[in-house]
Design goal:
The protein is an alpha/beta fold. It contains ten helices and eleven strands. It folds into two domains: about 220 residues, Rossmann fold; about 45 residues, no CATH class. It has a six-stranded mixed sheet with strand order 5-6-7-3-8-9, with helices on both faces. Strands 2-1-4 form a three-stranded antiparallel sheet, with helices on one face. The protein has a two-stranded antiparallel sheet with strand order 10-11. Strand 10 and strand 11 form a beta hairpin. Helix 3 packs across helix 4, helix 3 packs parallel to helix 5 and helix 5 runs parallel beside helix 6. Bound molecules: adenosine-5'-diphosphate (ADP) and magnesium ion.
Amino acid sequence: MTVLSLRDASVVLGGRQIWQGATLDVEAGTINVILGPNGAGKSTLLKAVLGIVPLAAGEIEVLGAAPHRGDVRVGYMAQSRAADQLATLTGRDYVGLGYDGPHFGWRRDPAKSATVQRALELTGTLSFADRPLRTLSGGQRQRIALAHATVFRPQLLLLDEPLAGLDIAAQAEIVDLINLVRVNTGAALLVVAHDLNPLATITDQVLWIARRQIRSGAIGDVVNEQTLSELYGHPIEIVVTPRGRRVIVGLEEEFAHPHPHGHDHSHEDVHAHFAEVYDEVTK
Ligand code: ADP
Ligand code: MG
């Protein structure tokens, strides 16, 4: 089932064309990673899906309708997270705010505490949900933010840079959790990221924004050196680790166009070393 489609869609902000002619589809139960340089319009794409940013041209359909604010079928974790500003609240209270948001004005809602509890269970945050957010690690806070965004079990979940600022172990935990949410809820996810590597094993489709175009491709079609070099706007090499993981590595110009004669450190050595270290830290 297609949960999101754009047809020839364009967005203009402050008189400037952000992207144009975007045509893409997102299927239920898939993980879709959005890549692109700063300012390319990644967050803007999520806001168009939320109905916060209107299209200047073209069409967008979200779960069979025009996007509209307050649609509980769409979950959203913003780039600068409220969880970081409301640090004196407990995680449970913060997830409760996610519940209240669309129900603002309701007097009493007997379903609230059970619904919040379920979101905390789903995201594995129960053991620290009653502590103030400020006492939590970045990874724990990110899990709470995911509970907040998934409190209504959305069919479409939008995550704006959920891995930003996390170390490699915390990133791996969040990636596992993102996949768990997909498996448990059948939701489609749009995940903005700067690096495809930590997400590559769970990614179905890559959407990348460059030169005001949004392009899309199945992960298997995208992860080759030519497409990735285009996508990142920088020469890229793919290294296969001894465990068979494919790792995307940015090349220095020198490696991209190697000098034909004598060099002190060999290209192969550097990458073999990198692959070893990478396997080490990602278990
Ligand atoms: P990304 O998330 O890819 O870094 P954004 O989607 O946040 O990029 O922003 C895309 C571009 O749109 C940026 O150049 C940003 O400055 C601009 N922009 C964002 N919001 C507005 C706005 N409300 N008015 C005018 N320009 C905006
Ligand atoms: Mg952004």
